[in-house]
Amino acid sequence: MDLETMLSYEWGAMMPEFIILGVVTLLSLLDLFLPKQYNRKSLAWIALAGIILAIITLISLFDLEVTSILHDTFRLDSFAKAFKLLLLVGAALVILLAESFSPKEGMAENRGEFYYLFLAALLGAMVMSSSGDLITLFVGLELLSISSYILAGFRKKNLASNESAMKYVINGGISTAITLFGMSYLYGLTGSTNLIEMSGTMSAVFDGQFQYLLGLAFFMILVGLSFKLASVPFHMWAPDVYQGSPTPVTAFLSVVSKTAGFIILLRIIISLFLMTPSDETGALTFLERNSDYIGFLAGITMVVGNVIALRQRNIKRMLAYSSIAHAGYILVAIAVLGYFTFDAVWFYLVAYLFMNLGALAVIQLITDKTGSEDISRFAGLYRTSPVLAVAMAIFILSLAGIPGTAGFIGKLTIFMGAFSADPGHYVLGSIMIGATVISYVYYFGIMTQMFFRPALPTEKLKVPGGIMFVLVLCIGGTVLFGLAPNIAFDFLHTNFGSFEDFLQ
Amino acid sequence: MSSFILPSLIFSPLLGVVILFFLSKNQEKAIKIVGFLATLPSLLLSLFLYVQYKAGTELSDFAIKEAWFTFGNLKQYDPKLFAVDFELALDGFSLVMVILTAVLSTLAAIASIHIKKEWKGYFILFLILQVGMLGVFTSQNLILFFIFFEITLIPMFFLIGKWGYLEKEKAAYSFLIYNGLGSAILLIVIMVLFARTGTSNIEALRYIMTVGGVSLIAPISGVMKYALLIALLVAFGIKLPIFPLHTWMLRVHVQAPPSIVMLHAGVLLKIGAFGLIRFGMGIFPQEFQKIAIYLAILGVINLLYGAFLALIQTDFKMVLAYSSISHMGIVLIGVGALNEAGIQGAIFQVVSHGLIAALLFFLVGVMYERVQTSSIDRLGGLAKIMPLTSGFLLAAGMASLGMPGMSGFVSEFMAFLGLFKEEPVLAGIGAIGIILTAVYLLRAVLGITFGTAKQPVPLPAEKSDIRAIEMAPVLVLLLLIVLIGVFPSILSGPLQGAVEAIMIGIGG
Fold first, then answer.
1. Least CB-CB distance to B184: which of A413, A419, A434?
2. Structural domain count, chain B
3. How many Cβ atoms are within 10 Å of A457's Cβ, its own excluded?
4. Which residues of A touch B191 (CB under 8 A)?
5. Has UniProt tagged this entry with the keyword Membrane (chain B) (predicted)?
């Protein structure tokens, strides 16, 4: 590759990534050379500025046609734009949470590291959403994972945090190996790592013997990626890691990292298996024939997440199981694969971003203050700080999928997909609704604490500016997209159409 | 200008919510007055609608329809596909329900003077509950209906769980889970219909299901129709409630504060009946015909089960709770009869029981306020210290057992008339329930007012009868009950059109 070809690429398409990369470099240098007594807290603002700049550049790229550079390893299509926007907005909110985080231990001494590791993870996720090649996809995934491993063990002197980081690394290693193993079969079959070329080879011919190899690869990849989604069978790490990590890291893992998981899942399985025939006639594609297995995983994930959450007393653990359940809901949208899949996944992730980050913001505040994560710490919150209690109530209602909130519309979109298919996915839809009703019990358990129980004798909570901002934005998003979902849908459709360019 | 009326009718209570936000939580009197006043605009507007209707204005003039949101990006093919509009409208049936809701809300706001704590939160939730109830009866598409339906759920959970009696939290949870399940089933039905037909508009769905000939997104088979109808019956059966899905409702009746039970027994249970008639009969008329007989049987079971158990209760609230189950049986009997008299009777019973149950629970609240118990064993001879209250209680009891000249008689008479035409044997068995009703009500009411208590509770020494402000709701309710009993045409007039439309759908 000579200089001329290098220059002929439209590097502008990669601008948001470059900005984040620049900020990561800047922050790591600053952290290294700044004097020890300098408070690293203010580095958050640089990180935030970088993210906002990246958002602005990304928005300015919306009008750009599908751009693919570096031999199609990096492509900027509607899918990449739409999901990158989610990642960046989520990241900006997490940075704000981290800025206001003042725990007893852990964050204080190496705060600087937190910011650049976090941005590095974000960069990995962004690369994933834009990659058209298994290699870049995998590099993005590893960048995200390795940064997350370190973040999970951030409270160096805390036993629980160390344990959770260890579990996370081991689980992550195994799952990555499984994914990679699955990918290797696909490479062997097609002789390429470029997703479009691979899809072309796979859909061109049908050979009955390949079906088993394809099946093996499909399941390996699906199972391996469930780690990032925190869905069954690789969900066991989530409760421990969510509980052991500092709350901003929990927020990152449950929102940004999960979004990234869905991005890579959609990228791989839709680009590769949607066009692949499953028999000579080509009546059913491979994905259609095997989508029941995704549905099966989705069903177990929803039930496991919600049922185990019932028994939790630790609020972060409870939220971990709830986030497992939510991954199950989104998997339903993928399993029923149809016209509404992209809409449903995107909208649900938007709703989830606001409601989950909002809930975690309140949790961070309470657990910081009281030093305990027991659910009883929420007792009488309505009396001591009514605004906070009402905010939390809104997030919980949205997580429970009550009308008037974004969570409800998200669930409706998923049901639309499930029931408009022919034959309809009634069993999966019913499991999802049943699981939602189960979730009422623990979600309203928090409500009971906040509104019915007498208050603990505590001093008044002071809400830091950063958290205040996150709360306002999250309430705004949750309620606005709940009452006027057309804003989000119109935005999606005017800017990204129906993701027609996903496979081109 | 008429397009403003329905939205302001439904959302005007929110005005009160906004004002309440600015009041300090200790200003008890101001909060109660604002809470009461905030229910008035809806009441006045609903009465205005009734007057307009009487004057000959078409109710469809008040309908509004605004684009709200659309699923998917299919506007270029068909702008109506998967669109959810914000559409409200009225027909005779919903007009009656809206007036019932508005009247009971205002009266329940008066009954809320007995609330002892946290008036601000109470009235905010109360007013949101009212918005939900009013919205349910006027929504013209299923998604909107469901949203309002769920809006009633959350305030009720808090109102029961925070302001109720001893076992309030258990009652609140059991309310939440049962109704959550009911809503979940309802949501499945709604989403299946919406996703497969592409519309959630009730009129459009009625057309698609009965007339057909419209190309659908995905087919709805005959079996599927039955499945959907039965799911609807279960969903609304929980709300109504139909035996054996009733246990949650007993807890709520006993544990919730009386002002909330007025709304619960008076309006919320009726949403079940409303849904059965509007959606069950309206959207699936042919299938409904096939299963109507089972509904009538369930109705007789409800009627007898409720009546028998009401006979042996020792708590007056429990008597009334079982009496509600028993009376909802009559609604089912009317619906199951599936002829004009039956359906008229069912709707009459919905309204009449709404008023009577509200009256009885209001009086229970008044009584409880003064003697701190509602146990029949511990109460007796209340006529001495509360002569007026006791008198009203007797009147309410008479209304409930269906004395001629009061609304209960009209509805029971019509419902049974309907069933006797179709299934005389079943109706004969059901008629036992009517006799039992008289027995259990007189036993309870007479025991409390004139009888002697087994373990008497210390009664207040001097007279402590119903106050003037408490008298107002009682008089209004009694007046309405007698009015409907004497001039049934004030109800049957508006209902005529709606019932005829249903009959045409069934083909009778």
1. A434
2. 1
3. 7
4. 412, 415-416, 418-419, 429
5. yes
**Residue in B with minimal Cα distance to A444:** B173
Sort out which chain B residues have CB atoms less than 8 A from A403's CB and list them: 146-147, 150-151
Contact B71 A422 (CB under 8 A): no
CB pair distance less than 8 Å for A402 and B150: yes
Distance from CA of B138 to the nearest CA of A (A): 17
Cβ pair A96, A135 in contact under 8 A = no
Asked whether residue A8 is assigned to any structural domain, the reply reads no
Q: pLDDT tens, B152-167?
A: 999 999 999 989 888 8
Of the candidates B151, B169, B191, which has its C-beta nearest A416's C-beta? Answer: B191
* Three-state secondary-structure class, residue B448: helix
Residue B349, CA atoms < 13 Å, CB-side half-sphere: 34
CB contact under 8 A, A420 and B158: no
**Helix, strand, or coil (residue B256):** coil
Q: Which residues of B touch A441 (CB under 8 A)?
A: 173, 177
- Mean pLDDT over A285-308 rounds to 90
Q: Select from A302, A329, A420, A442 the residue whose CB has the most chain B CBs within 10 Å, as the one to mutate to test that interface.
A: A420
Encode pLDDT of B58-99 as tens digits.
888 888 888 888 888 877 777 788 888 899 998 889 999 999
Beta-carbon contacts of B18 under 8 Å, excluding residues fewer than 6 positions away, are none
Tell me how far apart the alpha carbons of residues B64 and A321 are, in angstroms, rounded to a whole number.
Answer: 43
Q: From residue B187, how far is each of A422, A432, B147, B183, B236 by CA, in Å? A: 19, 11, 10, 6, 12
Residues of chain A with Cβ-Cβ distance to B76 below 8 Å are none
Single out the residue of B346, B93, B303, B83 nearest to residue B200, CA to CA: B83
Query: Is residue B159 one of the residues assigned to a domain?
Result: no
Residue B464 forms contact with A (CB below 8 Å): no
User: Around Cβ B404, how many Cβ atoms within 10 Å?
Assistant: 11
Separation of alpha carbons B499 and B508, rounded Å: 11
Q: Is the CB of B194 less than 8 angstroms away from the CB of A440?
A: no
Q: Decide if A420 is inside a domain.
A: yes
For residue A296, the Cα-to-chain-centroid distance in whole angstroms is: 21
Q: How many domains does chain A have?
A: 1
Domain that holds residue B355: 290-508
Q: What is the pLDDT of residues B414-442, one digit of tens each?
A: 999 999 988 889 999 988 888 999 999 99
How is B337-398 classified by DSSP, letter by letter? H-SHHHHHHHHHHHHHHHHHHHHHHHHHHHHHHHHS--BTTT---HHHH-HHHHHHHHHHHH
Alpha-carbon torsion, ordered A222, A224, A227, A229, to 10 deg:
-20
Contacts of B184 in chain A (CB under 8 A): 433-434, 436-437
ipTM above threshold 0.95: no
Q: Is residue B162 part of a domain?
A: no
Does residue B62 lie within any of the structural domains? no
- Which residues in chain A are contacts of B150 at CB distance < 8 A? 402-404, 408
pLDDT of residue B508: 53
Residue B374, domain member (yes or no): yes
Alpha helices in A194-314 (DSSP H): 195-204, 210-229, 237-244, 247-251, 258-273, 286-309
B248 Cβ contact partners less than 8 Å away, ≥ 6 residues apart: B171, B174, B175, B177, B178, B179, B238, B241
Residues B69, B85: contact at Cβ < 8 Å? no
Residue with tokens 């508005």: B102
The whole domain housing A120 covers 14-502
Residues 293-332 of B with CB under 8 A from A: none
Judged by CB atoms closer than 8 Å, whether chains meet at A403 and B150 is answered as yes
In a domain, A114, yes or no: yes
Give the three-state DSSP class for A194: strand
Q: How many CB pairs under 8 A join A and B?
A: 102
